[in-house]
Amino acid sequence: MFEDWKHQTAHTKQSFAELGKKYPKMLQAYGALNAAATEGNVLDEKTRELIALAVAVTTRCESCLSVHAAAAVKAGATEEEVASALATAISLNAGAAYTYSLRVLEAFNQQK
């Protein structure tokens, strides 16, 4: 499926701003979360964006992946770095499916 990701990013930011105007306390709270997450600058911007992209994959958030892909480019991430972060997301999703499969079998067997 083809997406115009630059348009998606602009639309997401515009929608986010509009919602923030209607619900400023929510926007302030979201801003406080972001400020807390970046406090101390332990991780550089590029690393934070690579993590954000991996999380966007695991949460299946298209708006997140659009905005954070643009931010990763701006932060100087390479395609190889993005691919490595995505490989980690893929691995964790597979691991989560595997461990939850064990839970399913446990639940199934307890129902007998």
TrEMBL record:
Determine the domain of life of the protein's source.
Bacteria
Alphabetized InterPro entries for the sequence: AhpD-like, AhpD_core, CMD-like
Annotated TM spans: none
Q: What positions does the domain Carboxymuconolactone decarboxylase-like occupy?
A: 24-107
Note the Gene3D superfamilies from the entry: AhpD-like
A GO molecular-function term, please? peroxiredoxin activity
In this record, what's one Pfam family? CMD
UniProt protein name: Carboxymuconolactone decarboxylase-like domain-containing protein
